[in-house]
Each structure stands twice: as structure tokens, then as C-alpha cells.
Write a structure and sequence with these properties.
The protein is of the alpha/beta class and 371 residues long. 42% of the residues lie in helices and 18% in strands. The protein has two domains: 6-269, TIM Barrel, CATH 3.20.20; 270-371, no CATH class. Residues 249-255, 273-277 are annotated as: RNA binding.
């Protein structure tokens, strides 16, 4: 019997490491490469589940730390699990809380045992060990759970990154030993900063432990785009070809195209919705900043040819008016457009890979997008 969560490789590009596949889960199949919108607190801000699906979303990401604090994983479990709780019937991936140990370091104390958080809500203690991180994610009922990892702040000395990498491997082993759900995949996370030898060692040791998929972590935490690209390129070759590869926290179109070229399958980022809420929209000619006076009487859509609700019905002029008037519809429409843009970008990338022309497609798209 096939595993409840498994990856099926479909096509590879002759000129790069780009590939297409299908991630099979208990809540449906996801064609890859695929972008996952971030629903930190069991919601993608301002976007109804049906509009997420209409935009092209097939798999979402939710946050272990935040949901453990509010409403609590026990509440979610009693109400039927995360899918029913947030009325999303597609696949869900939950992160482990490792990134919060980095991003909320002023409220976190990290030891070999795990991470002790002081809640940003009321100051209460959340003791997040590798075992607890898995237990929370099993209660939430996500299709894919992530191991707890140590994501070091950059820049840092190589010795500090090596220490964090070794701890990530030790915690990954404890996560694997703690898992109990046969219907939930667990992905390992490769750390190592920009150091090829650390990335290689971490990937190889995690593969030896044996996980259902692998993530490239420790990127988008203060390094340059070149360092992000290097981390991807030195990690992917050491990961199994028959399992999913997930690049954590990356959603800039240029970075997504680079990651696909390196053989990555899944991505997540708050960028499309956060930028949308701040009146910046994605397009193949670069960002469109809707608050600019140039759009005061602009009758054009955000992007010609886009069939999202924002572009198919409204002008840049109207959208600018919504933002200047403080109307909530503006951020909602801009967020939906940005999600639709990224889904369309990866869908077109899948088509190019299937036709063996991804290198040309990527070069043309990067030129159009600009720096």
C-alpha cells in the first residue's frame, strides 16, 4: 500500500535540475513546483478558503507556535483537526516553531532540551521540545509536520553555525522517535548557513535518519540573494530524488525561479499577502505600487491578462482609492492578486519543465521581472 504522503517525480528539465512532480497527501494531490500561502494563525489574512482555491492555492502552511498558544492544539483537535477548524479541505503543512526561536529570540531561551518561549500574548511559558513540537502537530492533524530545528541568526561564525547544525540533527532524531501518526509525513530540515560542507553533512545525516521529505532551512534570515542561491544549489544534490524538497520562507519571484532551477518542489512565504496589504502588487514587469500618484486615474488592471478578481473587475485607480481611503477591500484584492501571480508563475514553470525549456523560460522571466 502506498504511503499516505508520498512524492511522485514526473519530469526533469534537460538544462537544469528543475523538475515536476506530484505530492500525494490524505487531503489531495499537489502538482509541484508549488507555492504554499502562509496561514500563520489558521487563516491566510483576509482571504476566504474558496478564494484561495480560486487563486490557484492547493496547499497551505500554518504555524505550530502560534496555534499552540491560541487557541491551543487541544481545542483544534476537539473540533475535528486543523482542516475542519479553518474550513480548508486541501493539504496543510505545519512548521515546528524553530523559526520563531530565531525571530522571537528576545522571548526564547534555547538549550539542548529545546526552546522555552515566553508567550507574546500573556507571558506564559511554552516549553517546545522536539517531542512537544511533534505532539502539537499531530494534534493539529496537518498532512506534513516539520522537525524542530535550530535556525541560527546570520551573520555568525562558522563554529556557531556548525553547533546549530549538529543540534538540528540531534533534534531531528528525537522528532522521528516521537512521531506516532502513520497518516502524517515528517520532513527533516537542512541547516548549515552558506557553508557547503555543513549543508552536505547535514543533508546526508538526515537522509540516513530517513524522513518523508526534506526542507532547506536557514535562508531568508539576513543573507544575500547569492547566499540563498548557494544554499539551494549545494543542498539539493544531496537530497533523494524521489522525495519532496521544500525551500522555507522564500517567495520573491526571482528567488522562486532560481529555486526551481535547483530542483526545489515547494515554497512558502508571507511576501505576497504582506506586500498586498501594503499596496504593492507583483507583476511580470516588476512591482506595482498602488499608492503612487501615477495610478490616480489609471484605468488599467494591475496586470494585463490576469484573471484574478482584482484584475478582471477593477482598475489601478480604484484600487489606489481603496488604499488611500483605508478600505479593507484594497488589501484583500491585492493579496489575492499576488497569490494568483505566484501560482501562475510556478504553473508556467511546470509547463516549461515538461516541454524541456525551463532554462529559456527562466532567463526570459528574470529579464522581464528586473532586479
Amino acid at each position: 500500500m502506498p504511503a499516505p504522503v508520498r512524492f511522485e517525480l514526473q519530469a526533469t528539465d534537460p538544462g537544469s535540475a528543475a523538475r515536476t512532480g506530484v505530492l500525494h497527501t490524505p487531503h489531495g494531490a499537489v502538482e509541484t513546483p508549488a507555492f504554499m500561502p502562509v496561514g500563520t494563525q489558521a487563516t491566510v489574512k483576509g482571504v476566504l478558503p474558496e478564494l484561495l482555491r480560486a487563486s490557484g492555492s492547493r496547499m497551505l502552511l500554518a504555524n505550530t507556535y502560534h496555534l499552540a498558544l491560541r487557541p491551543g492544539e487541544g481545542v483544534v483537535a476537539r473540533l475535528g483537526g486543523l482542516h475542519r477548524f479553518m474550513a480548508w479541505d486541501g493539504p496543510i503543512l505545519t512548521d515546528s516553531g524553530g523559526f520563531q526561536a530565531f525571530s522571537m529570540s528576545d522571548r526564547a531561551s534555547l538549550t539542548e532540551r529545546g526552546v522555552a518561549f515566553r508567550s507574546h500574548l500573556d507571558g506564559s511559558l511554552l516549553d517546545l521540545t522536539p517531542e512537544r513540537a511533534i505532539a502539537i502537530q499531530e494534534s493539529l492533524g496537518a498532512d506534513v509536520a516539520m522537525v524542530l530545528d535550530h535556525c541560527p541568526a546570520l551573520p555568525a561564525e562558522k563554529s556557531a553555525i556548525a553547533e546549530a547544525t549538529d543540534r538540528t540533527i540531534r533534534w531531528a532524531r528525537r522528532c522521528k522517535e516521537a512521531r506516532s501518526r502513520a497518516d502524517q509525513a515528517v520532513f527533516g530540515i537542512v541547516q548549515g548557513g552558506a557553508h557547503a560542507d555543513l549543508r552536505r553533512e547535514c543533508a546526508e545525516r538526515l537522509v540516513e535518519l530517513g524522513f518523508d521529505g526534506y526542507a532547506i532551512g536557514g535562508v531568508s534570515v539576513g543573507e544575500s540573494p547569492d547566499e540563498v542561491r548557494k544554499a539551494m544549489e549545494v543542498t539539493s544534490p544531496h537530497l533523494p530524488t524521489d522525495q519532496s524538497r521544500y525551500l522555507m520562507g522564500v517567495g520573491r519571484p526571482q528567488d522562486v525561479l532560481d529555486a526551481i532551477a535547483a530542483g526545489v518542489d515547494l515554497f512558502d512565504c508571507v511576501l505576497p499577502t504582506r506586500n498586498g496589504r501594503n499596496a504593492t502588487c507583483l507583476s511580470m514587469r516588476g512591482p506595482v505600487r498602488l499608492r503612487n500618484a501615477a495610478h490616480k486615474a489609471d484605468p488599467r488592471p494591475i496586470e494585463e491578462g490576469c484573471d484574478c478578481p482584482a484584475c478582471s473587475r477593477f482598475s489601478r485607480s480604484y484600487l489606489r482609492h481603496l488604499f488611500l481611503a483605508g478600505e479593507m477591500l484594497g488589501p484583500i484584492l491585492a493579496s489575492i492578486h499576488n497569490l494568483a501571480f505566484l501560482h501562475r508563475l510556478v504553473r508556467t514553470a511546470r509547463e516549461a519543465i515538461g516541454e524541456g525549456r525551463y532554462v529559456q523560460f527562466r532567463a526570459e522571466a528574470l529579464e522581464a521581472l528586473g532586479p
